[in-house]
Structures are given as C-alpha cells and as structure tokens.
Write the structure tokens for this entry.
Amino acid sequence: MTRNAVWVSLRVVLAFALAAIAWAHAAAGSGLSIPSFRVLGPSFRAWPGELAELERRMTQGDAKQVAPALRAQAAEILPQLPLAFQALRSVALADAVEGRTAAALVRMQAVERLTRRDPVSQLWLIEHQSGNGDLKAVLAHYDVLLRTVPALRPELLRRLVESMRYPEMVRELTPYVQAPWFPVFVQTAAKNPSALVPVASLLMNPVEMLPSLQANWANGQLILALMQAGHYSEVSEIYARHSEQFSKTSLVDLSLNNVEGVVSYAPFTWVTGERNGIVARFERTADGLPGAVVELEPFTSGVALARTFLHSQTPVAFTWNVGERVGTKQSLAQWRVTCLETGQSVTSGNLFAQSGAHNRMQLPTGCRVMTLQLMVNGGSVSGASRLDVANLRWVV
C-alpha cells in the first residue's frame, strides 16, 4: 500500500462526519443564558434554539437548503455580539456548505480562539485537517476534545485505537503519553487485539505516563492483555525500558513476599488461594526466610499459590524448602509448571512427603514463559492440613 493510500485509510478512521453526534453534545452550549441580552428582542431570545435546530437540520440531508437561513440568522446576531462563537460557527458552516472552504476555515479558527470547548468547530477542524493530510493538527484537535468534552471520549478513543495499525500514529501520538486521557486510551487499547503491540511501543519510549492509580491500572490491563495474546517480548521490553518504574527482576523473582517499592502487575504477582477451605499467606520461616503457609480443610482442592514468570535466561530446574507440615495420608500438595509457549507441563512429587531443603523439579526444555502453581487437595479424611514452603529458587 502506498503512503498516500495509507493516509486515505487513516483519514477515514480519524475523520468525523459532522452529524447528530456533534449537535447533541453542543446543544447545551448553543445558547447564551445572560438575562441582560433580553433587551435585544424576541428574535434574539429565540435564536439559540432556532440556530441549533438549523445546524441539526444541516446534518439530515438538506444542508444546501438550510445554509442561507443559517447564515441570515447568524448575521443578525454578529453585529451586536461579534464574540458570539455560536453565530460565527454557523456562518462558517454555511460557508463550508456553499463551497467557501477558505472562509469557513478562517471563521472556525476564530471560533477556536474564542473557545476551545466547542465540539462542533473542533470536529469540523478534524475533518478539514484530515483532508489536508495534517495528522499532527488532527491529533491536536482530538486532544482538545478529549480534555473538554467527556461525552465524546469513548468514540474518540475508539477511533484512535483503531488507527494504531498505522505506523504514523505511533510516532505522532508519542507527545500525548502524559495527557490526562492517555491512561483511558491504554485501557481501551487493551481490549483491541490489533492495537496491543503498537500501544505497547508507545510505552517503550522514554516518556512515561504521569504517575497515578489510573495509569497503574492501565499499565496492568495492557500487560495482562499482551501476555494473554502471547506478546512476551513486548512485555519484557516495557519492563526493561522503565526499570525505575517497574522492576525487571519481578518478572522472574520467586520470593514469597511482597517486595516494598517494587511495582509489578498481574500475572507477575503471586495470587493466593483464600476460598473453599484453602488459605495461603506469606510468613517468614523460623530462620528468617520469606515463605508461605498453606492451610486446607478436608474435601477441598484447588490452587493455593500461582504466578507467571518471564525469563530472559531459561532455567533448567526449580528448587524449594519444605518446613513444617501437618497432614493426613491423603493430603496432597504439588508444584505444577506449565510452559505457555509450548503447553508442556511438569508436576512435582507430593510436598507432604518431603522435608528440608533442596527439593528439586526439572523444567521443560527451553521454557521461557511459564506459570507456577501449587496444587493442593485436603483429601477425604477428617483433619486439617498445613504446609510451609520457602526459599524457592531457579536453577539456570
């Protein structure tokens, strides 16, 4: 596809047909609620609603018929109120319908100087700049709308996400990474499989989103979506590029505790089972090592601990210590490692039959991305079971 064809396709995605959506969100601001203006007479008092109705009719197929009335109505207002942006906008729309594009542009830019909160002029400018192939200007108007018209945000963000398949968008969106709407953009992109890698590339730039709970949530959603889609290299690169914000060691860290000051996201965090008679919590062992205590009732089974790991250097084995253990003959606890790239899995022996250090399990060959789960079963014999594990390590 030629560069021109690419831009035409991108323009179709980004440009808005000026339709009812514009007027629906502009209607509330189409009138001037200033009591002193009443002295100007009945025609002015009727103007806001009438002008908005004429603008609305322009979107329903009779634009050329409505344009003269729209221009005439606005022309009555402007001599008395030259800063009335609604009237100036109406003249600009009439200009555009009648083919006077240059005049329409001058007036729409004047409206923008009067107020950046008018969605109709911003949408018109988006369409005009799209036709000129000026992506930087188009995105500047998107930025204004995203900041000032919350009701339009879902549609605007949907269009931006759809446009991420074009390389030009990645380059031109980079300056907006710290915009207040960017975290919501990332959350929207996390739901669109085709946008995951391009949006991830935005997060690989030196500029980071401004710190906030919403930014953390957005990062987490994108990283989880990337993992689920198998884009492991992109996740690793995001962690590597932002080592001050994310800890790359958290991709492989087996410590059974929550390390203070280290930010990571699911699935690179421990998930503990606390349901159906299974309880897992982090505690230090008698010799001070970070560990986990698992307690389970009879007739219960499930996952007590689980985490995903993304290795740069593939481990060949996994070791752990077993501390205190109390159980019945039927109590069962086994590590299960599943390789996400190949689907291979291996299972350890029963931890209730083990003790001390250096318990070991061989891992699937060449497994870089894996989930580690501690599967437990309380059996059918009365009596609760308890198991302490600690000192988990990879063998490279």
